[in-house]
Amino acid sequence: MKIVALKEVHPGEKRVALIPEHIARLVKKGAQIAVETGIGQTLNIPDHDYEKAGASLETDRRNLFQAADMVLRIRKPTLEEVGLLKAESIYVSLLDPFNERKLVEALMQKDLTAVSMEMIPRITRAQKMDVLSSQSNLAGYVAVIIAAERLRKIFPMMMTPAGTISPARVFVVGVGIAGLQAIATAKRLGARVDAFDTRPVVEEQVKSLGAHFVKIDLGETGQTKDGYARALTDAQLQKQREGMAKACAASDVVITTAQVFGKKAPLIITADMIGSMAKGSVLVDLAVETGGNVAGSQLDQEVEVNGVRIIGLGNLPGKVAVDASRMFSSNLFALVDAFWNEAEKRFVLDFEDEIIKGCVITHKGEIVNQVIADHYAQVNQTG
User: What's the CA gap between 186 and 373, in Å, rounded?
Assistant: First the structure.
């Protein structure tokens, strides 16, 4: 089976889907690996390292697409790239299937097996494959580092001959993987940290990291079976904003991470709340790529509103591309390894398996993922 990895061409993307370490392990299993020349240049990994790991190098990108039995990648393909892939091959990457219907239908019509890494189920056996967790973890860290650099104050308390400096106050909204890492990083830097989430179950996790959990009575909320926060009603969102306004006004840094999987991110920080924050405060919107939690945040931009800096940078894991690539590559290897047939030396699709059922979107000219099929059907009904 020929597995192909290509350079990422998305603007600003410095991550790499496969690093030599995991290529060597795949080669030992009998896989044939081909990579695009210069694939590791953004990480300063020379082509020689890929060759040493057992991969062949190819300069012609079109040839790689056309020869691949399986493509491992970070970003979704363009429609033109879908046309280059051979029928019945397997394409594995982030696909955003809820919002990329045209792409999913193109993959289906080309008779491709499309695997969406976002759809890996959050079960114990699949933790090693969970790219959302691995990349969100890094995003939470980077968000705090960026905020600390932009804030015109220091994070820790300092007692000096010239006087005592109070610690910066950081408020984290959304206590998923990214939020927890943001809390931990801000605490390590010496900040006083408050946090809020719609799921009361995470209060103990917040406290275990030394932060204070902000309680707002929203009534029934809870989480999905995969651990994601459930979407709030309009009334709950309004009550949440009112409850958070005081915390925002008292904070030097606010980091928002609230996302509802497959849907537009909820607007949490309103213009009025920004107006109540002290000049020089910093807002970091980790949900900017899915619509944003902060009023006025703009993708890949930093804007200032009433003296408050709003940071809406996308692809935060890409800011630490070396570690992000290592983790993403490890996630991809874990997926291939779990379903690798040693005797046949190929990746085998077992549709009785919970992981395959969860992450495969198209196969043999059909949309086989029931969650995505139901979503498209609902969209059709609602127009």
Answer: 41
Q: Per the structure, how many domains does the chain have? A: 2
In sequence order, the 6+-apart residues with CB closer than 8 A to the CB of 24 are 53, 54
Check the CA dihedral 12-329-120-209 and report its sign. Answer: negative
**CATH number assigned to the domain comprising residue 199:** 3.40.50.720
Catalytic residue among 89, 116, 133, 136: 133
Q: Are residues 139 and 274 in the same domain?
A: yes
Burial of 61 (0-12, 13-18, 19+ CB in 10 A): middle
Domain containing residue 74: 2-129+321-382
Sheet holding 308-311, edge to edge: 212-213, 192-196, 169-173, 253-256, 282-285, 308-311, 302-305
| Helix ranges, 151-218 (H) | 177-188, 203-208
pLDDT tens string 279-329: 999 999 999 999 999 999 999 999 999 999 999 999 999 999 999 999 999
Q: Indicate the angle between helix axes 131-150 and 177-188, nearest 10 degrees.
A: 40
Among 39, 14, 240, 228, residue whose Cα is nearest residue 142: 14
- Both 154 and 271 in a single domain? yes
**The tokens of 227 are what?**
């651990």
Question: Can you tell me the distance from the alpha carbon of 30 to that of 336, in angstroms, rounded to the nearest whole number?
Answer: 12
pTM over 0.90: yes
Catalytic pick among 122, 150, 188, 199: 122
Torsions phi, psi for 254 (to 5 deg): -125, 130
169 has catalytic annotation: no
**376 is known as an active-site residue:** no
Active site residue 109: no
* 141 a catalytic residue: no
Residue tagged 């968000």 (tokens):
143
Q: Is 359 helix (H, G, I), strand (E, B) or coil?
A: helix
pLDDT in tens, 68-90: 999 999 999 999 999 999 999 99
Q: Which residues pair with 283 in a beta bridge?
A: 254, 310
Longest dimension (CA), the chain: 72
> Is 130 annotated as catalytic?
yes
Q: Are 213 and 174 in contact (CB under 8 A)?
A: no
